């Protein structure tokens, strides 16, 4: 083949999530048409992100520094911890620009079917943080699916033993949504958790 | 920011065609979770494809060698040239595994609105190839849009002057398509070009 390096690039792009063969081809041909500096920039951005980014030893969020941006920020409320599945969720929640507490990234959710037990995710680390005594409330913000619920209940049980308040993010209809497209379970939860206005 | 290299990766991925901010984030987070060798592989695949791939001096197709795979293949029929807009079209047409002639990549289509005239695309190169005397037929396979049609007619005119047969790929309903979703112009062309069975 006279285009081995192009085929290799297509194959590697095709391994990325959500990138099918057609998209990989389109991206690869685009790369060939990009200025060389742009390609070099993208190539080294990949290496740099991979080599520099690591997990914050306190909360498990992504960081380039010793501690992550949130754990090293003294204005953040250390008595409040929001528990999430992975580091991506931290950036999703930070987009609110409202939450002033800290986070704890579990690095997964309990899933007996996949062999993921309490020792496989960062629950012990959360318990030690809580045991330090500063934490007043832990918000359980795992996903509202089977594994997320199971993980939230398991952690809630552990926190009860430690005498710390555990809360779960609210279920209800999404803002800007249409009742027609909201599933029955969500509607039921939205009705159940109705508030006086 | 404690995630500057991650933000840089997201920004660079976001510049790729069809990659919005959300997709760029998803890809970047995936890169962080990939084994280091995989990231290094992707990073160097980008550099290698960009540095090794160039245009075939005969037909304008992509190649790593002096001539492209098709131009250096003696079993290909050199009396037949298929004219396409860009090198991607060559790989699309090659997927048929039926065409045994050669190609000529224009590197664009005539578009007076965008300031692309006959001297900006590889028409002169096509004319020289035809003038060498071996070519019997030129198939015009530019896209069936305004620019593609204009380019095909322009080249057909040039070929007529040289006394070489010029053909245009057929218009009609796509195989596996549904008449309901075929536009009127295509239906008209399909009726007009009907064949006795």
Task: Give an account of the 3D structure.
- The structure is a homodimer of 197-residue chains.
- With 197 residues, chain A is an alpha/beta fold.
- The first copy, chain A, has 2 domains: 8-52, RecR Domain 1 (Helicase, Ruva Protein, domain 3, Orthogonal Bundle), CATH 1.10.8.420; 75-168, 3-Layer(aba) Sandwich (Dna Topoisomerase Vi A Subunit, Chain: A, domain 2), CATH 3.40.1360.
- Helices cover 43% and strands 13% of the residues of chain A.
- Chain A is built from 7 helices and 6 strands.
- The first copy, chain A, has helices spanning 4-14, 21-33, 36-52, 87-94, 123-131, 146-162, 184-192; strands at residues 54-55, 62-63, 77-84, 101-105, 137-140, 165-168.
- In chain A, the strands form 2 sheets. Chain A has a 4-stranded parallel sheet. A two-stranded antiparallel ribbon of chain A has the order 1-2.
- In chain A, helix 1 (4-14) crosses helix 2 (21-33).
- The model of chain A has no long low-confidence stretch (mean pLDDT 92).
- The interface between A and B is large, with 53 and 53 residues.
H/E element order of chain A: HHHEEEHEHEHEH
Strand content of chain A: 5-15%
Q: Estimate percent helicity of chain A.
A: 40-55%
Helix-strand makeup class of chain A: alpha/beta
Oligomer description:
homodimer
Radius of gyration of chain A: 22 Å
* Alpha plus pi helix count of chain A: 7
Q: The CATH topology of the largest domain in chain A is what?
A: Dna Topoisomerase Vi A Subunit, Chain: A, domain 2
Distance between the termini of chain A: 70 Å
Q: What is the name of the CATH class of the largest domain in chain A?
A: Alpha Beta
Largest interface: A-B, 53 and 53 residues
Tally of structural domains of chain A: 2
**CATH architecture field of the largest domain in chain A:** 3-Layer(aba) Sandwich
The biggest sheet of chain A, with number of strands, parallel, antiparallel or mixed sense and barrel status, is: 4 strands, parallel
Number of strands of chain A: 6
Strand order, main sheet of chain A: write it out: 4-3-5-6
């Amino acid at each position: 083949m006279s285009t081995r390096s192009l085929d290799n690039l297509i194959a590697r792009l095709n391994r990325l999530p959500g990138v099918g063969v057609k998209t990989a081809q389109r991206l690869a041909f685009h790369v060939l048409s990009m200025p060389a500096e742009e390609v070099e920039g993208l190539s080294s951005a990949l290496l740099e992100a991979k080599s520099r980014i690591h997990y914050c030893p306190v909360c498990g969020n992504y960081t380039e520094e010793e501690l992550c941006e949130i754990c090293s920020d003294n204005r953040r409320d250390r008595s409040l911890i929001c528990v999430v599945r992975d580091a991506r969720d931290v950036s999703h929640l930070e987009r609110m620009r409202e939450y002033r507490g800290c986070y704890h990234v579990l690095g997964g959710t309990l899933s007996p079917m996949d062999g993921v037990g309490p020792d496989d995710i960062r629950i012990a680390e959360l318990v030690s943080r809580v045991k330090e005594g500063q934490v007043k409330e832990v918000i359980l913000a795992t996903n509202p699916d089977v594994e997320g619920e199971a993980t939230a209940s398991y952690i809630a049980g552990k926190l009860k033993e430690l005498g710390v308040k555990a809360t779960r993010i609210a279920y209800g209809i999404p803002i800007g949504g249409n009742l027609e497209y909201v599933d029955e379970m969500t509607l039921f939860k939205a009705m159940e958790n109705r508030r006086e206005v």
